[in-house]
Specification:
The protein is an alpha/beta fold and 342 residues long. The chain is built from 11 helices and 13 strands. A 7-stranded parallel beta sheet has the order 5-6-7-8-9-10-11. A 3-stranded antiparallel beta sheet has the order 1-2-3. The protein has a 3-stranded antiparallel beta sheet with strand order 4-13-12, with helices on one face. The chain is globular.
Amino acid sequence: MDINLSLRTLHFKRPARTSRGAYSERRIILLTATDKESRRIGLGECAPLPDLSSDRDAYPTLSSVAQLIRQALDAEDYTEFLRPYPALLFALESAIHDYRQTPSLYDTPFARSEVGIPFNGLIWMSSPDEMLAQIKQKLLQGFHCIKLKIGANNWDEELALIRKVRSRYSPESLELRVDANGAFTPDTAMKRLEALAALGIHSIEQPIAQYQWKEMAALCADSPLPIALDEELIGVTSLEEKRLLLDTIRPQYIVLKPTLHGGMSGTMEWVSEAHRRGIGSWMTSALESNVGLRNVALLTAVVYGSDIRFSQGLGTGALFTDNIEMDMEVRGSKMWRSPVER
């Protein structure tokens, strides 16, 4: 098996805005595992986020990536060797499993195109009118769970928008999740959580910035609104660190992105440790191309079983003007694997 590398730059249809800033393009490294004799291929994607990933500066050139891969494959356990490099670990695991068609990933009802995975409609930060228009479009497409990025606009305007949406759609007819990307401060967070809870919000991701464990633990203990950790998990690679974080903060949920949170193996560690503590979780993409998104979906089907009713975060495939064609399709509010010949 040979591993080939190539660079790609994807372009967003519209800038993807969060409270940390906006993305207009996305640089990725594609890994292709090949075999000349059998002509099999396996695809993986290494796509760290420039201002977020713990390994964002670890891949300056393709030759440096190739060297890391050689060292990893020569090691006793490549997943352990690549713990500090979650984006590359996810890419290499994905390429190897795809090449081998590992049954645990490729013999599930989702992988066999028998069931779809429900996912939330993602509403990006923009003006209130534009965000409301996005919501209306998602509802027309059949979504029953909407995720709103908040924290970049005026708080009163964002709250007014959510009130407007909730006045039209009850919690029973529309599940609303919000993601603050750490935009609140410890001093303002609780009042804002109370205001959101009054509107029947399902949960909030990362209300305050990471590395404030004491403050985040206090919020999770007293919040009237379930809190999901996201950025907080970045850079926490060892099993001991994961256990310490979960035992200290005790969130209601964790949100898992294999590119950021330890690849496939590291993500499954997070899920297992959270489950032991009664902490819920769901899976989401990290603005990868369809290559990474497909592999996140395959992993999601393994982690949560064949009857997934909880909406996942897989709604990023339509963000790019020049995405990579893969064996996936969206039907309503579900992601399906398209039947293909290999």
